[in-house]
Amino acid sequence: MANQGLRKAIGLAAVSIVLLVEFGMFYDFFYPFRFLWGQGLITELVLSVVVFLWSLAGVFLVFFGGRSLFRTITLPFFIFFYLSNIGSFLVSNGPIDFQQADLIVSYFQWWAGAVVENIGLAVLPLLIVLVPLILVVERLPRLFKLNILGRLYAVPVITVPLVFIALLISDGIFDRYPSFFRVPALLAFAGQSDLYRGERSEVSYSGSFESQVEKIVLIVDESIRADILGINGYVKDTTPYLRSVEEGLVNFGMAASASNCSDYSNLILRTGVRKEAIPDRVERSLKIPSIWQLTGRAGYDNVYLDAQSAEEWANYQNFMNEHEAIHVDEILRLRQDIAYDSDTMARDRLTDLLKQPGKTFIMLNKYGIHFPYFRSYPDGFELFTPALVPGEPMNDRERSLNSYINGMRWSVDDWFRDLLSESDEFRKYVIIYTSDHGQNIVDDGTLATHCRPRANRFEGIVPMMVFSNDPETLERFEASQSTNYDQTSHFQVFPTLISLAGYNESWVRSYYGASLSEPAGTPPEFFVGDAFGRGSVRKWVPIFPRRD
User: What's CA 177's distance to the chain center, in Å?
Assistant: First the structure.
């Protein structure tokens, strides 16, 4: 009897250590408790805590529940989810959360390929220990001889749907469950979490239009980090062309993206939802008029150039759907088999559009610099070395950074050089240039580049530049350059676009906030977490170090 008591104590101690390691991965383990209590959501809090306590018992029974065929079949899944969570922490410095679960569910094929190609070596040790760990845990009941009834193994199995229900009740806010159950429940929660996909409301504007230019262009690059642009003072000359431009360019330096995830940033850029409305729990950004409706109402033809999607895919991305696309006059999907050729094709199409007469609004999503970075520029274009080669892990920061800079030189500096070389033939235009988010280039020792719960400030640092051949427009932005330098954000882009299209500026300011020609009024920071408020991660991260 004494030996059995000792064995139980050892088993409980081992499980306690596993749980302490698990819960130590959260940046602030008690945040969901405080949030639900502070919001007065007592019922949700109590139910979540009850399920949490049940899940603790479930972990013990995963390890020491009586052996059975059912346990033998299901145990590998529990161990796999546990190791997956550890892998997430090693790669992204945080456990699997709702955002990552949603990414896996929505883009599984892309996600799996990215994991294998970019971080496969980092998680390989976990795959190696998977089978041995399953075999060891499967035999623990025999080794410890705790004589726990086999039917009690139903407790951990039932815990998965219980956690799923608890996530539904709290909208994913309370997610502090052991990963054996949290990961599959989060995947199920993300899979059923449906957003509004209907028609958008009509534009409610009764004023006149005084458009300032014939061509309005919004270029959203991919993963461009503004502090590594030479024009912004980076130590290496990464943008010699842009740095040499003396007229026709107003550079606002480093700006804050709306989010560290592409889809949220692009949605906010296209809809103008205000900063104070994030997280957008009422899904206003999916219901209010999009940029296409406002520019169309102002008399502009709308063209969307998508260098990230191929024509045969016929898909929409970044929360666009057929109800939004109906307001776009022409959609061109320009992704090429050779990835870096996609932006070349987009540049050629944009050049043609800027030469044609008529009022046109153009939005371009560039291919930019997707990881692995060596795909973003041609072979032999290695101006900065040593750089990554195919198959080489990303954990060497010097090589990763040089490879990224090579892509930046090709995809940003040379791209604009070639575009603007024909600007003498352009109609009166304004180009607003930014990026969807920045990039973590092993800055904190982890391999995840963006869209993660424990983001660093580099993931939200993006460029903000205005190009134009209209003196009055340039003068307007130059007047605010000194005040707004290193202070702007994505939330100022939409008001700028519709002001250029001719909407009354006071109306724009009242509905959408400050434009780039006005002080932002808030510090440059980006949102981390689901933009619709699902899940437990929701915080604003400044792009500059805090001065405490």
Answer: 24
Helix (H) or strand (E) holding 257: none
Per-residue pLDDT of 475-509, as tens digits, reads 999 999 999 999 999 999 999 999 999 999 999 99
Question: For the chain, how are helix, strand and coil distributed in percent, rounded to 5?
Answer: 50, 10, 40
pLDDT-wise least confident of 90-104, 108-122, 320-334, 443-457? 108-122
What is the distance between the alpha carbons of residues 294 and 300, in angstroms, rounded to a whole number? 9
3-state secondary structure of 226: helix
8 A C-beta contact, residue 470 and residue 212: yes
User: Quick one: which of 504, 501, 463, 503 has its CA closest to 485?
Assistant: 463
156 preceded by a cis bond (ω within 30 of 0) = no
In angstroms, the Cα distances linking 272 to 316, 427, 430, 431 are 19, 26, 18, 17
Residue with tokens 């220990």: 129
- Please give the model's pTM, rounded to 2 decimal places: 0.94
Q: Tell me the C-alpha distance between 231 and 413, whole Å.
A: 10
For residue 409, what are the contacts with CB-CB under 8 A and spacing of at least 6? 238, 239, 377, 381, 383, 384
Question: Would you say 126 and 474 are in contact if contact means Cβ atoms under 8 Å apart?
Answer: no
Q: What is the pLDDT of residue 126?
A: 79
Model pLDDT for residues 352-388, shown as the tens digit of each residue: 999 999 999 999 999 999 888 888 999 889 999 999 8
Q: What gap in Å lies between CA 441 and CA 456, rounded to an integer?
A: 10
* 242 contacts: CB under 8 Å, gap ≥ 6: 229, 230, 231, 249, 251, 412, 413, 416, 465
Cα-Cα-Cα-Cα dihedral sign, residues 10, 14, 20, 23: negative
The amino acid at residue 416 is F
Q: How far, CA to CA in Å, does 395 sit from each of 121, 372, 398, 445?
A: 10, 12, 9, 8
Q: Are the beta carbons of 500 and 213 closer than 8 angstroms? A: yes
